[in-house]
């Protein structure tokens, strides 16, 4: 009997889609994206929306802004950068589908604060600013978010740039580009080898689900 022809078992739990699974994992982790534990998220990269489309409350222009923020964090080098992996769309999707209303508000308000910080540094918006100005501002925001997160109380919200950086890293390293070009990836883990020699300059191994 094929799986499709088997009668439904009334005692079987209902199936859930990938986005619900991601949301439940977020709830279990207290809403924090654990960048180092990318295996938990490996399945969600296939849901990445196509380029040039609005996502939830994010306009096409806002998705493009997130792409540029992510590209500044993870620029193209000898491997493609975050924009090639459509990380901006991933970030917008994750905020829309998995963040609660309070965190969504912090994130979206933070996009405006980031733009204002770049404007104060160079008199332009983030999209119009040169790469050096973008990088300088994001480095300063990264220091600010670390100091804030290190000292914040449990009931205080996360810093918006912490959210952006987490999602940028998560989106890139669970993408096909991040797994297969920025890292080394083998679909089958093969034999168990607890200790492998490391050759300086070679990419890290991608995590497996």
Concise summary:
Helices cover 48% and strands 0% of the residues. With 209 residues, it is an all-alpha fold.
Structure description:
There is one protein chain. By secondary structure, the protein is an all-alpha fold. It has one domain (17-181). 48% of the residues lie in helices and 0% in strands. The chain has seven helices and no strands. The protein has helices at 18-28, 60-73, 87-98, 101-122, 131-151, 160-173, 176-182. Helix 2 (60-73) crosses helix 6. The chain starts with 17 loop residues before the first helix and ends in a 27-residue tail after the last helix. The relative contact order is 0.14.
Describe this protein with a few key phrases.
disordered N terminus; mainly alpha; 209 residues; 0% strand
Task: Map the helices and strands.
Layout: H1 18-28, H2 60-73, H3 87-98, H4 101-122, H5 131-151, H6 160-173, H7 176-182
> Number of helix segments?
7
Mean pLDDT: 77
Helix content: 40-55%
Major sheet details: none
Count of the separate structural domains: 1
Low-pLDDT stretches are 1-13, 25-46
Number of strands: 0
Shape: globular
* Rg from alpha-carbon coordinates: 19 Å
- Structural class of the secondary elements? mainly alpha
First and last CA, distance: 29 Å
Order of helices and strands: HHHHHHH
Our estimate of the beta-strand percent is: under 5%
């Amino acid at each position: 009997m094929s799986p499709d022809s088997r009668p439904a078992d009334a005692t079987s739990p209902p199936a859930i889609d990938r986005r619900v699974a991601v949301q439940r994992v977020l709830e279990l982790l207290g809403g924090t994206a654990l960048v180092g534990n990318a295996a938990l998220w490996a399945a969600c990269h296939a849901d990445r929306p196509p380029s040039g489309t609005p996502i939830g409350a994010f306009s096409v222009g806002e998705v493009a802004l997130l792409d540029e923020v992510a590209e500044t964090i993870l620029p193209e080098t000898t491997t493609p950068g975050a924009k090639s992996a459509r990380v901006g769309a991933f970030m917008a999707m994750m905020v829309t589908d998995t963040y609660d209303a309070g965190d969504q508000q912090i994130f979206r308000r933070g996009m405006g604060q980031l733009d204002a910080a770049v404007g104060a540094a160079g008199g332009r918006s983030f999209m119009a600013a040169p790469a050096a100005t973008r990088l300088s501002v994001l480095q300063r925001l990264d220091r600010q978010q670390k100091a804030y997160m290190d000292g914040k109380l449990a009931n205080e919200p996360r810093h918006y740039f912490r959210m952006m950086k987490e999602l940028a890293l998560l989106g890139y390293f669970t993408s096909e580009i991040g797994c297969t070009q920025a890292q080394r990836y083998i679909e089958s883990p093969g034999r168990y080898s607890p200790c492998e020699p490391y050759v300086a300059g070679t990419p890290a191994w991608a995590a497996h689900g």
